[in-house]
Amino acid sequence: MSEKKKSLMQKTFLSYVLTSKQDAWINYLIPSITSFLLYIFLFASDVAVVFRHFKDENPIWASVTLFVMWLPSLCSYIVIVSSWDLWPDMEGCERDNCIWFVVKTLEHLMFPVWAIWRFAERIFWSIEAVRASDDEFVYLAINKASAPRTIELYFFFQAFLHSLPQMLIQLNILMRQDYNVNRQTADAEVLSFVFNLSKIAATIAFYQRFKTQKLAGKQYPWFKSYKNRFNPTDEIDSLTRPRATHTRPTSSTSEDPSPRVVHIRQLSSTTEEPPPSESRRSSDFYLEPEESDRPDSMHKSIYSEPEQRDRPDSAPKSIYSRNSMYSRNSGYSTQPDFNIRRVAAVKGLPEDDQAGKLVSFLWWSCFLLARILAISTFFYFYPTATCWLLFSHFMIVISFLIYDVKSDDVKRGKAVFFLFIGLIYIFCIIEFKIKFKKTKFMYIGYFTLVFLQDFIMCMIWWFNNVEDLRKDFWFQYIFYIVIMGSLISVPAMLLYLCINKPKKVVVGQRVL
Prior knowledge:
By secondary structure, this protein is of the alpha+beta class. The protein has helices spanning 3-9, 20-55, 59-82, 95-109, 111-131, 135-145, 151-175, 183-207, 210-215, 234-240, 317-330, 354-381, 383-405, 408-413, 415-424, 439-464, 466-469, 473-500, and strands spanning 12-13, 16-17, 247-249, 262-266, 285-289, 302-304, 342-348, 505-511. The strands form 3 sheets. A 4-stranded antiparallel sheet has the order 4-5-7-8. It starts with a helix and ends with a strand.
């Protein structure tokens, strides 16, 4: 096996570099078996809930529960079929297109069988990787196990369109049931709540910093490689591509339209230039002109139009005064001969190891448990106030996203996606399809807002209904679970951020 492939395969666990066999065990076989068991238990518990609702003569709740189970498959089917670039033939209604359409329809209609087939594929190739003695075959088996499949889009939607609504529905039913409720029905609802909570926590742990991790090589698990969407350099190339600038020749001539070549170098503390201001960190790069080898009489230059945003007010004037000095010495023009452009480092976040994912899973499990219980209980006592509170939360989050993204293209072209992600942000926060420019600001602001909301909601219904709560241990139990879940999620979050979170790596440069 080549050294390049080995370096791509090498993964770590608690900073310990894993061998190919250890990698196959820890990152593929064990997660594949765990995910398979979780899916089986989750699906079985939801089927049991549907059966018990029909048995208890509650067809409405049974139908709603059944619809929620099918909703992720329906949405996945709509997205995949409506994506024309995923079809075999781009033009016409050929035989391959018809076969592809029928296959995708059958797969989404029988999504449990399709999902189990995918888990079986993962487990089979993971076992082959564990059994293999040749590193080259291990590499090929791991590629087979992690190959992109469209079923992965269903797994993503399952967390937010199945597990999250299912938890809210079953918890709402449990709160309104009296003491005469069938014990088997209650047990099935509790099991469904626990397994769906595990599903959504695991999904959030995988996608929480997905956009930044994508810069470092992490890929969407549902895009087919033959569509050329599985290239980790695509997004980096788009970031490092220089912006288009208006150019014009100097007063000496206008015949040579080709721009001169420029070098990139890093300003260090040993150079004669003044230190950069706070708005230009020492790790930034700058573009400088290359000295021309041609005689002065033959020299022609092209320069970029200066832009105000490229020249912050706080930047040292001496940096830009060199432009005028250069143009005075050349004798060609009184205009600056070049414009110093900032080149910022593009950083990506490596994917978490299994230890980091476990800590993140614990953090999100406790956080989501407290969040869902707080909202559901407040809705039980004050339904109208809960709706207004969640609507206000939705508008605040959307405002934060628009402020952070600052892109007209995102505002217009991804309006539907912003609505979807805004609803998700009522319960959790993930960096998916959009990259946070101020990550600390977004995370600190979000968790501060959510913890305050949970605390205030609990205090309101606890003190205003304290007499009724003394007669019902269920709400007292919820109150203590919300407090304990919030308290446990904070140290788990800090443990992840301080110890388990991987360090960012430079993956490219971006001309500003």
